[in-house]
Write a structure and sequence with these properties.
It contains two helices and ten strands; from the N terminus they run αββββββββαββ. It is an alpha+beta fold and 170 residues long. It has one domain. It is elongated, with a radius of gyration of 20 Å.
């Protein structure tokens, strides 16, 4: 009886150890794509652009949120370009919006892009806002969702309306 209990306890400890190790390892995916988008000014699609995305998306099994680190260059907006310019995007588990921030040579540059965005896990559909209220979106539907839930309240601040009503972007 003691031998069976000892074997069962050892098996449980091994399984827990494997799960703990897996929780520490992110599953990385290289992302390289060009995504067409439109820039909306006052509700009108004013300009076509492309977003070049190149980097690594990390998908940990447990605990930490998914994240992306790499280029997220809006071709019509040079403040997102540069050899050392990188974007970091975080997917949080308890909300349907994400956070984006740029880093250039270890500092946070003034990109005039608000930090809250909507983006699908495969990074093919997204919407974000510039601090003048202009919205970049990959579809009119995403533009409408973003405009309904997010607004600029100051040079570097924004508000969210009906957070629970924000759908998950698929």
């Amino acid at each position: 009886m003691k031998k069976k209990f000892g074997m069962a306890a050892s098996l449980v400890l091994m399984i827990l150890s494997v799960l703990w190790i897996l929780s520490l390892l992110p599953f990385n995916q290289e992302i390289i794509r060009e995504v067409p988008a439109k820039i909306y000014e006052s509700g009108i699609a004013a300009e076509d652009t492309t977003v070049d995305i190149e980097g690594t998306k990390s998908n940990p099994l447990f605990g930490k949120p998914d994240s992306f680190s790499g280029k997220f260059h809006i071709l019509s907006y040079e403040k997102t370009a540069g050899e050392d310019m990188n974007a970091n995007i975080k997917w949080y588990r308890n909300t349907n919006f994400q956070k984006i921030f740029y880093i250039d040579s270890g500092r946070s540059p003034e990109t005039e892009i608000m930090n809250l965005m909507l983006i699908s896990e495969d990074m093919t559909k997204f919407a974000l806002m510039f601090n003048d209220g202009t919205i970049l979106a990959t579809s009119e539907e995403l533009y409408e969702i973003y405009a309904r839930h997010f607004s600029v309240t100051g040079p570097d601040s924004m508000s969210i309306t009906d957070e629970e009503g924000i759908p998950k972007i698929k």
